Amino acid sequence: MSDKPNNTQALLNLRDEIDGIDKQIHTLLNQRATCAQKVAEAKLQDDPNAIFYRPEREAQVLRKIQERNQGPLADEDVARLFRQIMSACLSLEKSQKVAFLGPEGTFCQSAAIKHFGDWMQSMPMTTIDEVFREVEAGACEYGVVPVENSTEGVINYTLDSFLNSNLKISGEVELRIHHNLMTAKTNDPKNITRIYSHQQSLAQCRKWLDAKYPNAERVAVNSNAEAAKRVMSEWNSAAIAGEMAAEQYDLLILNDKIEDKPDNSTRFLVIGRSEVQTSGKDKTSLIISMKNQPGALFNILKPFKDLKVDLTRVETRPSSSSTWAYVFFIDFLGHLEDENIQKLMQQIKQTAADVKVLGSYPVAVI
Question: 205 near 221, Cβ under 8 Å?
Answer without folding.
Answer: no
